[in-house]
Amino acid sequence: MAVSCQAACCGGQSPGLIYWCFRALCCKGPPPARPEYDLVCIGLTGSGKTSLLSKLCSESPDNIVSTTGFSIKAVPFQNAILNVKELGGADNIRKYWSRYYQGSQGVIFVLDSASSEDDLETARNELHSALQHPQLCTLPFLILANHQDKPAARSVQEVRLINMITLCISCFLHFCCHSGILKDACN
């Protein structure tokens, strides 16, 4: 039967076509799905969470509106899909962040590197709370120092020092801080 499938379906062509015929006739199922990972994206209002996710999803930057509450975006990559829960960063919403942590497999913390000292202190406290939360404390954290194109932006080294000195990060946690500019040269 396999030989007749190859001859009828593929005419003795390439192995890729043979595999396709086999999957279509014998398995009758879709190809295996890419793995999906659930992440939570947090940070203060105006830090650039929505812009980051819009850029990763190749959406137009023209229609970006700050998130109130939360939103979920599927960010496709070649080998995986990241399902990112973006949580609004306003004062009245941050107290509910922990209700959305369950099931997360990683955390993106977006920091406005050009923010005021007061906002930086608030962001540091929120990051500290997230790092200590039982559902997040063992997960990988990406800290993105956004708005690097602004004149008042702190360098990655400054952000790292501010957070490393004041957070008392556990020895098993790898601190990863990256800078980000999300707008094109045209914007």
From TrEMBL:
It comes from the Eukaryota. It holds the Pfam family Arf. Mg(2+) binds at residues 50, 67. Keywords: GTP-binding, Magnesium, Metal-binding, Nucleotide-binding. The keyword Cell wall biogenesis/degradation does not apply. The keyword Nucleotide-binding applies. SUPFAM superfamilies: P-loop containing nucleoside triphosphate hydrolases (SSF52540). Belongs to the small GTPase superfamily. Arf family. This is ADP-ribosylation factor-like protein 15. It comes from Rousettus aegyptiacus (Egyptian fruit bat). The lineage of its organism: Eukaryota, Metazoa, Chordata, Craniata, Vertebrata.
